[in-house]
């Protein structure tokens, strides 16, 4: 396993730890659900976005890892074009998922179909229509992990 894939796996693991803690906090019901959704949702999203970026560097066969991973396929600048050509299909799939799929939803930072509202003075959180949900974040994590696993399996066959 390369350094980039190891970092991607670590970020996925951290996202899973947060999802478990989020579920436990919701069950304890000691804090408002809205606040928990906003706090845990954003933290999970950041870990998933970084896992995605590290995996992009894995696809690019990048050995000199930057301090922070890219957040999209378009940020894979400075990577040898020969490395990118080897995994054109996977990168094209990710570009599509950035435009019309779960990766784009992770990048945008809010679940699809939500509206953003401003908090009123004295409110701890915003309306429930613009928050993350445990199920949405869990689905993102599952989708990213299964996509990465599928691509890794197909790359190993080459």
Structure in words:
The chain is mostly helical. The chain has one domain (3-113, 126-157). 65% of the residues lie in helices and 0% in strands. The protein contains 6 helices and no strands. It has helices at 3-28, 33-59, 81-86, 88-100, 102-108, 134-157. Helix 1 packs antiparallel against helix 2 (33-59). The protein is elongated and about 45 Å long. It starts with a helix and ends with a helix. The model is unreliable at 111-116 (pLDDT under 50).
How many separate helices?
6
Sheet of most strands: none
Number of strands: 0
Question: Element order, helices and strands?
Answer: HHHHHH
Count of separate structural domains: 1
The protein's oligomeric status is single chain
What is the arithmetic mean of pLDDT? Answer: 83
Helix content: 55-70%
SS strand fraction: under 5%
Low-pLDDT segments, ≥5 res: 111-116
Distance between the termini: 15 Å
Shape: elongated
Counting helices, strands and paired strands, the structural category is: mainly alpha
> What's the alpha carbon Rg, rounded to whole Å?
17 Å
